[in-house]
Amino acid sequence: MSIGLEADLAPNPATQASLDASATLQPWPHILPEQVRALAQILASSTGPLALPAIEARFKSKGPWKKGLPRILDTLEALGRARRERDGWRS
Known about the structure:
Elements: H1 5-9, H2 13-23, E1 26-27, H3 32-45, H4 52-56, E2 59-60, H5 69-78, E3 83-85, E4 88-90
Parallel strand pairs: 1-2
Antiparallel strand pairs: 3-4
């Protein structure tokens, strides 16, 4: 007996495309203004709060770039471009 759960389990093409687009890693910018812009864009494109590890997962780079993320997020918060929530950060 089918109760229609198969339709609920099938991936929604629009949702899948959105997930695929957000899963694309972007290089971490080298200069501060571009870093601020990149973080602001990630937060603005998110449908909900993003925890720090989720934000880190959007970028690829070598070196200690992750250490600067909290400072940039705090700066965006001070400028009114981000806000800290219990579950993470959002625009």
